[in-house]
Amino acid sequence: MIVNGSLEKHFMAYSEGRDFMFCDLCGTMRTLSSTKHAQCPLCKRKISAKEISGRQISYTATAEDIRRELGISIIREEKVQLQKTDAKTCEKCGHNEHTYYSRQMRSADEGATTFYVCTNCQHQFTEN
Question: Sorted alphabetically, which PANTHER family does this protein's record hold (predicted)?
Fold first, then answer.
């Protein structure tokens, strides 16, 4: 139990390990309303600017926070549908069965790139 005006001392000791930009009493973020003090907009408690001068403010932003702020959405990779062909001969093992898929890798006015994988030795090659 805290008595005889030691409540403020208790809060000051408690807040030393906490973020100095948040009010010790109610937890609301303080505003720098003047060059002399920072004030809690909710309970109006003030602290001297001398108490916070020289301290650094840091925060963590996740990649999702940045994407949301910039309005960027993630393009999801679609599952590649593999086709089989015997029109190509593997340069490595001579096998003639491959799986393949095509992707548009360059501008739209250029042809797609076809990716081949040998079903025998897993050798990979492309054709533009």
Answer: DNA-DIRECTED RNA POLYMERASE (PTHR11239), DNA-DIRECTED RNA POLYMERASE I SUBUNIT RPA12 (PTHR11239:SF14)
CA 70, distance to chain mean position in Å, is 12
Using CA atoms, how far residue 29 sits from 23, 38, 43, 62, 77, in Å, is 6, 10, 11, 21, 41
Question: What is residue 121's predicted lDDT score, i.e. its pLDDT?
Answer: 92
Interatomic CA distance for residues 43 and 25, integer angstroms: 8
- Any idea where the domains of the chain sit in the sequence? 7-52, 83-127
Number of other CB atoms surrounding residue 99 within 10 Å: 16
Entry field: residues in the chain: 128
Q: What is the pLDDT of residues 36-88, one digit of tens each?
A: 998 999 999 998 888 877 777 777 888 888 888 888 877 666 666 777 877 78
Binding positions:
23, 26, 40, 43, 90, 93, 118, 121
Q: CATH number for the 83-127 domain, one of 2.20.25.10, 2.60.40.10, 3.20.20.30, 3.40.50.1000?
A: 2.20.25.10
User: Could you tell me the pTM of the whole model?
Assistant: 0.37
